[in-house]
Amino acid sequence: MSDHTIKIENGHITFVYSDELADLMDEGTTAVCRVSHVEFDNDRQGWTADMSPVDGPVLGPFTTRAEGLVAEREWLTANKGL
Amino acid sequence: MSHVADVDIKIKDLEAAALAAKAVGGELKLGQKTHKWYGQFMNDWNSQDAAAQRRDPKTFGKCDHAITFKGIDYEIGLCKEADGSFTAVYDNWGSGKQIADKCGGLKLPRLKDEYAAAVSTRMLARRGFRVTRTTGAKGEIVLKASN
Predict the structure, then answer these.
(1) What ipTM did this prediction achieve?
(2) A58 touches chain B (CB under 8 A)
(3) Cβ–Cβ of A24/B10 closer than 8 Å?
(4) I need a labelling partner for B125 at 20 to 30 A (CA). Which of A13, A39, B4, B60 fits?
(5) Range list of H helices, B24-95
(6) In terms of CA atoms, which chain B residue is nearest residue A79?
């Protein structure tokens, strides 16, 4: 089971990429960009989600990488509506 | 480590175009080869938005399909491009201003958004998703898909 949010504005379709939605990319000219860097921070001894590619903060540190990925998605939902 | 995809929509699916036309109060007329406009190129508008920047004025008024609106004299033409997509062309002078009003502005964003919603919903349904549509805080269309 999966859930996706697709935003449509000014003739643009925007969504967090998933192979399940790949067909939408055939509907026009597509640009794809990374929204974060989820890495282990050696200084902070935990996983962080650096949201700077979308003008966001560094989230974390988190104990697990999975927590960092969840935080990334929650931030995208709360701040970008995706 | 997500990626965001941004698709600048192109009109390719005429069934979705018909749904979009209906959503903005118009009707797609398949095979209508001309669309009503002022009828004479006056060469009096040269901004980047002017059709003359991209299209030969000799082709003005010609199209492959058209979108008509009850009570509005002018019409939108859908003109087929080399890649198979269609460009929406209209004369924004005179009654063309009413077309812009119905479609959200000069560049017809509401028509494009309704088209994008129609093609997206159709694709998601083909893939077995249940789709619900809402309107976001800035007026954007938001589709939630789940399966």
Answers:
(1) 0.89
(2) no
(3) no
(4) B4
(5) none
(6) B137
- Smallest Cβ–Cβ distance between B1 and the set A12, A33, A38 belongs to A38
A38, β-bridge pairs:
A49
As a whole number, the mean pLDDT across chain A is: 95
Q: Indicate the domain borders of chain B.
A: 14-39+54-146
Find the length of chain B.
Answer: 147
Determine, for residues A11 and B113 on separate chains, whether the beta-carbon distance falls below 8 Å: yes
CA distances (Å), B106 to each of A11, A60, B73, B99, in order? 13, 44, 17, 9
Q: Quickly count: other Cβ atoms within 10 Å of residue B33's Cβ.
A: 12
Domain residue spans of chain A: 1-32, 34-82
Strands (E), B81-115: 86-89
Contact B93, B39 (CB under 8 A): no
The model's pTM is 0.90
Chain-centroid distance, C-alpha A82: 8
pLDDT band at A73 (very low <50, low <70, confident <90, very high): very high
Q: Do the chains contact at B3 and A28, CB–CB below 8 Å?
A: no
Asked if pLDDT for residue B49 goes beyond 90, the answer is no
The phi and psi torsions of B14 (rounded to 5 degrees) equal: -70, -25
Instruction: State how far residue B9 is from chain A, nearest Cα, in angstroms.
Output: 4
- A2 versus B74: which is more confidently predicted? B74
Tokens of residue A58, six digits: 């560094």
